[in-house]
Each structure stands twice: as C-alpha cells, then as structure tokens.
Design goal:
About 80% of the residues lie in helices and about 0% in strands. It is mainly α. Helix 3 packs antiparallel against helix 4, helix 5 packs antiparallel against helix 12 and helix 11 crosses helix 12.
Length: about 500
C-alpha cells in the first residue's frame, strides 16, 4: 500500500513539474509538489465538467458527446496549467519574477473565466431558464410591434375596416343607415348643440327666478320683503333670461325640424341607391379581401419564422443575457453569481499564484539541488561530447595511420619488385655479355670486351618517382570498415618497359 501511495504521489509530483531524481535527494519538497499536482488535477476536472455543460447548452449535443469533449478540454487545461508552472523557474531578480508572473497570471485569469462561466450558469439553471422564457416573450412582443409599425403591413387595419363595412352592406341588402348620412350627422350635431344651449338658458332662468322670489319673500339677498328695488332688479334679470330661453327654444325647434328633414331625405336616397351599393360593395370586397389575405399571410409567415427561431434561442449567449437580467432584477442572485465566479477563478489561479509567491521567497533546497543537477547534466554532456570528439579524432588518426602504413608497404613492395627485376635484367645482361664476348673472341680476337661494352648503353631499371608521388598525394580510399578501393599498383614490367625496348 505504501509503494502504491508513493507511486500515485510520484505521478502527482511529476504532473506538477517536479524532478523525481531531485525529490529523492530533497524529500521535504515532495509534499508541496504532490499538493500542486492535486490542484492541477482538480482544475482539469472542473474544466472538463464546465466544457461538458457548455457543449450541452450551446450546441445541444448529447451528454455522451459532451462528456467526451469535456474530458479532452480538461486534458488541454491540465497541460496548459502544467506549462505555466514548469516555465516559472526561481530567479534572484524581482523584476524578472514579476515579468514572468504577469503574463501567466493573466492567462490563468482568462482560463478561469472561461471555465467558471458554464459552471455558474448551470448552478442557476432554473432561474436562468425562467428568465430566458421571459426574454423570449419580450422579443416576440417587440417583433409583433415592429411588424405593426412596418409600412408593408400598415394597411391591414384599414383593409379590415373596409372589409367589415362592405360585408355589412351586403348583409343589409344594400340598405344603409340613414343616421350615417353626412347630412343627418351634421343636423344631429346642430340639434344637440341647440339643445345644450336651451338647457343652459332654462337653468339660468330658473336660478334667476328663484332669486327674485327670494328677494320678494325677504329670505335672502337684501333681506327686505316685498317688491323693493332688489326684487325689481332680480325680476328684470329673470325676465331677460326668460326671453333668451324662449329664443333658444325656437332655435332648438328649428334644429329638430332640420334633423327630421335630413333623415327623410337620407332615407329616400338610401332606398334609391341600395342596388348600386350592393354592386360596389361586392366588387370592392373581393379586391380588399384578396389584399388583406396576402398581407395577413405574409405577416403570419414572418411571425411563425420568428417564433421558431425565438424558441431555439436558449443557448449559451441567451443564458448569459438572462443571467445579466437576473442580476439586475434580483441583486442577491447577482452577488451569488459573483461569489461563485470568484471561487472557481481562485481555484484556477491557485497553482500559478502559489508558484509566483514561492519564486519571491528564498530558494528552497529542492530548487538549489535542481540547479546543481542541471549544471551536472550540462557538465556531463560536455564531457560526453568531448569524449565523442576525441573518439572521432582517434578513429581518424587510426585511419590515417593505416593508410600511411598501407602506402609504405606498397612502396616497399614495389621497390623490392623493382630490385628483383633489376637483378634479373642484370643477370640477363651478364649472360648476353658473356656470349657476345665469346663471339667477339672468335670473330675478332683483337677486339676487347671493353670496347664491345662501350658500344652498348645499358639502362638501369629504377623506380618511377612520379608513381610514388602520385601514391603519396592521392586521397585516402580506406572505407568505414577498413576496406580500400585504390587502384592496384602498376606492375614492374610496365616500369621497366623502356629497358625491354632497349634490349630488343
């Protein structure tokens, strides 16, 4: 069990960027790196969960596919966070530490925002869904209002009224209401105005008459009973108002008679125009109904298309808008959303912040040993490189020595062959010289062998020095495995060809 736990801890420490060989020398840093690895694994799990929710909400993907995508995204986040940690090495300069930390913290904030948003939306799913429905209803109402204000559909109310009037004409057999005639309408309005004037004059007369009677009784006004001056004044005002009321009554009677005449005339005209009204209403109804049906169909189609689109607007962007509306309408929900966002963001920032703070502290034993181990690795690599270079140089030296030895052996062999050939030639010359001397002694005894020898120029065989120089300056042809591909040396017969020619 202990070995198993140690294996899991080693994996977590390696995930946090620790070197296991250094941890064996500095075991005190093991717990810190194991904890960092656990935090990295936690952020990856949150990222996987967030991505699964986001894919399901935004794309409507099945949960199986969403989980698969979420796991892939979690691995990507773990790799990015690990890269941020591994790249933050301890530095003695505060400015360099800050320069290294700032972009990594900014990237961590961005990743934390992306990761925390789907999680917070999922937590407030019920409230957000209700707000999304409200937003969809508001969007539908706004779209309907825009259609009503659209110039293309502005004639729909007018056409509806015209169709209703034309249908009323046809339903009544062409008979129209005389009261709708303009003459009757005008006469009615004049009669109503005269009636109002008469009623006002009559009310004023009754009020003045009551005041005159009150002055006569002495119960009001001056308080003096009997037909005094106050009474006379009130009675005169009442008489004047009575004359005005009578005049208003006469005008009312005249207006009532005019209204009766207008109704009579309108009734006669309506009876005479009923057949023509039916024909006109029939023709106009067909045209107006066709235009109304076309506009209504187009408007209904646009509303249906918008409703289909609006019903599907419940993705990630719609949920973000609903969350903003929810935060505006309910401040407690906005505060809770902010707290959850900061929580998930802090989890994502935790590894980078811890690493940044540790870089501002004194180097730990692990960090010092890591630097020493890196330097040892560099020195070891330099030694191995020097050894490889020396081995290559030694091999080249061996190849040169082997080639030089081969060339020396070839030169020695050729010199030996040349000496042997020269000895054979000398032997043949001596033999010929002896035969010639015997012949000369027989034919010309007086001629000495020395004279015969002086008449013949002998050519001593020597080694061709040009061949030797060519062999010395020629490039080495020794192969990788010690094989040679140089051409074979020239035979001694070719070197002594001139001697053979002279002998012949």
């Amino acid at each position: 069990m202990r070995a198993r736990n140690r294996s899991v801890g080693d994996r977590l420490a390696a995930l946090a960027g620790a070197r296991l060989d250094v941890l064996q020398v500095a075991p005190g840093a093991r717990a810190k790196h194991v904890a960092l690895g656990g935090v990295l694994l936690s952020t990856g799990g949150l990222a996987a969960l967030s991505a699964a929710f986001a894919v399901h909400m935004a794309l409507g993907a099945p949960w199986l596919i969403a989980i698969a995508v979420g796991l892939g995204w979690g691995l990507v986040i773990i790799n990015l966070d690990r890269m941020l940690l591994v790249g933050m090495r301890h530095d003695a300069s505060w400015l360099r530490n800050i320069a290294i930390a700032v972009p990594r913290v900014a990237l961590a904030v961005l990743l934390g925002t992306v990761i925390s948003t789907p999680l917070t939306l999922q937590i407030f799913n019920k409230e957000i869904y209700a707000t999304v429905l409200t937003l969809q209803a508001e969007a539908a109402d706004q779209f309907t209002s825009d259609l009503d204000a659209n110039a293309r559909f502005a004639e729909i109310p007018v056409l509806q009224q015209k169709v209703a009037d034309e249908q009323a004409v046809l339903a009544g057999g062409g008979a129209t209401d005389p009261n709708a005639d303009p003459r009757v309408t005008a006469a009615t309005a004049d009669r109503d105005a005269k009636q109002a004037a008469y009623d006002a004059a009559q009310a004023s007369y009754r009020e003045l008459q009551a005041k005159a009677q009150c002055e006569l009784d002495g119960t009001c006004g001056s308080g003096n009973a009997g037909p005094g001056d106050a009474y006379q004044t009130a009675a005169a005002a009442a008489a004047t108002q009575a004359a005005l009321a009578n005049s208003a009554k006469s005008e009312l009677d005249a207006a009532q008679q005019a209204l009766t005449d207008a109704r009579t005339s309108a009734g006669q005209d309506a009876a005479s125009n009923s057949a023509r009204s039916v024909a006109l209403a029939t023709a106009d109804l067909q045209t107006d109904q066709a235009a109304l049906d076309a506009l209504t169909t187009a408007r209904t189609a646009e509303i249906a298309a918008f409703d289909a689109q609006n019903s599907q607007s419940d993705g990630l962007l719609a949920r973000l808008e609903a969350m903003d509306r929810l935060a505006q309408d309910r401040p407690a929900a906005g505060t809770a959303h902010l707290m959850l966002f900061l929580l998930f963001l802090s989890v994502e920032l935790l590894p980078v912040l811890i690493k940044t703070l540790l870089n501002f502290a004194e180097p730990t034993a692990y960090e010092q040993l890591e630097v020493l181990r890196d330097e040892e690795d560099v020195e070891a690599e330099k030694i191995r490189r020097d050894g490889r270079q020396r081995a290559v140089q030694a091999r080249a030296d061996l190849i040169v020595a082997a080639e030089t030895d081969r060339m020396a052996r070839e030169i020695i062999d050729r010199e030996a062959a040349a000496r042997e050939e020269a000895e054979r030639r000398e032997a043949r010359r001596q033999a010929r010289r002896g035969r010639l001397a015997r012949i000369v002694r027989i034919v010309r005894p007086s001629r000495s062998a020395a004279e015969v020898e002086s008449q013949r120029e002998l050519i001593e065989p020597t080694l061709d020095t040009g061949e030797l120089e060519a062999m010395m300056t020629a490039p080495s042809a020794v192969g990788m495995y010690g094989t040679a591909s140089v051409p074979a040396p020239r035979p001694a017969a070719e070197l002594l060809q001139s001697v053979e020619v002279g002998d012949r």
